[in-house]
């Protein structure tokens, strides 16, 4: 290539996805937060215009088809037209949330947009000033599940200038339903740059060749903490590539840990959270939804197990944010702490509490796989299990281990209270 190539790699836009169960104290922010994914994509479009890129690559999941959100699709097409007005080409694949067989309105896309077929990998030249400067390879999902390793079909041609593979996939997920592939398989294709979608956290898996997850432009819930955005790439005359991450999120989701080891009063708890909120406000400087995790062991363990007290704190913390532009809204409080007790010594006593701790210690001491198997068997034997439905059958290993850890200490606390009663 004799001149540079500039493009933006984005994906997992999830336009129209609602933020569920969020308490907003300010009406103006209800309007903004409600369209945060669209506003994040607007930032991408503006960045593409400002940087005068030649192309925007969209790696799947433009919207969430289950919501059938017509407004989101209209917003999407409007922004694609805006890119076209500035001579910017758009290349897009569909993923598991917006497969080609999903419902979508019959809204024609502008001529600057190419959506890749679901039948086979297509190779589309990227023209700059009438000259072919790069080649984009891509294939969309036909259905919400794609069990085939699509990466095997991406094969660079010898006469390619700069080959880009655009794919929605789960790298390393052998039994995944999201076009599973391997890192070695991506390297063997000969692509210069893999523009991947599906994982919502930005990740550069490798630099030679570039294998990149762009992440999502906007975190959608409390599990998607940290920065979100897209990658801006510049390719030099000899194929050297440099990447710049662009933060496009309108709202941030964050999580903090508040150790209770040295906290002895409710006022100290509230002050610790207040200081943490101010630190986040200073560092992030934009609306933030916050999860507070109480950790450690201390005398306040029983207090933070009181649902009424915790809800009172949450309400008061939210009231403090009224009218603030860069609010830090406490959305969740999780008790990951332990009672202030010498577990080893307490387990030696010949009573119900001691027996309880000895049983939980035995489970804790099992190899990880055996421990998870036992916990799942215990869960499935409970009469309440069927009421959990799909959630119960698909609960993650991490969530199961977390539930066990919390239940162990809560159960011990309840037994101690019963004895005292």
Automatic annotation (TrEMBL):
PANTHER family: COMPONENT OF ATP-DEPENDENT DSDNA EXONUCLEASE, PHOSPHOESTERASE
Pfam assignment, any one: Metallophos
InterPro entries assigned: Calcineurin-like_PHP (IPR004843), DNA_Repair-Maintenance_Comp (IPR050535), Metallo-depent_PP-like (IPR029052), Mre11_N (IPR041796), Pesterase_YhaO (IPR014576)
SUPFAM superfamilies: Metallo-dependent phosphatases
Record keyword Nuclease present: yes
Official protein name in the record: DNA repair exonuclease SbcCD nuclease subunit
Annotated Calcineurin-like phosphoesterase domain residues: 5-202
Keyword terms of this UniProt record: Exonuclease, Hydrolase, Nuclease
Keyword presence, Transferase: no
Top-rank taxon: Bacteria
Entry's Gene Ontology molecular function annotations: exonuclease activity
Originating species: Megasphaera paucivorans
Organism phylogeny: Bacteria, Bacillati, Bacillota, Negativicutes, Veillonellales
């Amino acid at each position: 290539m004799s001149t540079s190539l500039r493009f933006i790699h984005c994906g997992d836009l999830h336009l129209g996805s609602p933020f569920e169960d969020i308490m907003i104290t300010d009406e103006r922010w209800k309007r903004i937060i409600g369209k945060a994914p669209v506003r994040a994509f607007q930032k991408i479009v503006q960045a593409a215009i400002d940087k005068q890129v030649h192309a925007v690559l969209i790696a799947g999941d433009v919207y969430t088809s289950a919501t059938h959100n017509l407004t989101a699709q209209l917003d999407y097409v409007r922004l694609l037209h805006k890119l076209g007005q500035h001579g910017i080409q758009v290349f897009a694949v569909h993923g598991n949330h917006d497969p080609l067989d999903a419902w979508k309105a019959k809204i024609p896309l502008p001529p600057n947009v190419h959506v890749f077929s679901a039948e086979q990998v297509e190779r589309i030249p990227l023209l700059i000033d009438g000259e072919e400067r790069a080649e984009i390879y891509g294939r969309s999902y036909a259905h919400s599940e794609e069990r085939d390793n699509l990466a095997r079909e991406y094969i660079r041609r010898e006469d390619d200038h700069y080959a880009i593979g655009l794919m929605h996939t789960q790298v390393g997920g052998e039994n995944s339903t999201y076009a599973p592939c391997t890192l070695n398989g991506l390297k063997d294709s000969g692509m210069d740059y893999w523009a991947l979608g599906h994982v919502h956290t930005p990740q550069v898996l490798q630099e030679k060749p570039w294998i990149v997850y762009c992440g999502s432009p906007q975190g959608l819930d409390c599990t998607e903490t940290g920065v979100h955005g897209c990658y801006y790439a510049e390719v030099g005359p000899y194929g050297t590539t440099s990447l710049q991450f662009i933060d496009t999120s309108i709202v941030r989701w964050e999580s903090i840990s508040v150790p209770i080891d040295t906290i002895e009063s409710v006022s100290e708890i509230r002050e610790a959270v207040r200081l943490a909120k101010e630190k986040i406000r200073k560092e992030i400087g934009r609306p933030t939804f916050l999860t507070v995790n109480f950790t450690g062991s201390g005398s306040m363990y029983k207090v933070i197990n009181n649902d009424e007290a915790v809800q009172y704190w949450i309400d008061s913390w939210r009231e403090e944010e009224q009218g603030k532009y860069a609010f830090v809204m406490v959305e969740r409080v999780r008790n990951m702490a332990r009672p202030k007790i010498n577990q080893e010594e307490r387990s030696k006593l010949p009573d119900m509490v001691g027996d309880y701790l000895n049983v939980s210690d035995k489970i804790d001491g099992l190899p990880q796989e055996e421990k998870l198997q036992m916990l799942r068997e215990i869960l499935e034997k409970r009469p309440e299990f069927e009421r959990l439905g799909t959630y119960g059958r698909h609960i993650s290993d991490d969530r199961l281990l977390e539930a066990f850890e919390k239940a162990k200490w809560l159960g011990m606390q309840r037994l101690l209270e019963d004895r005292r009663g």
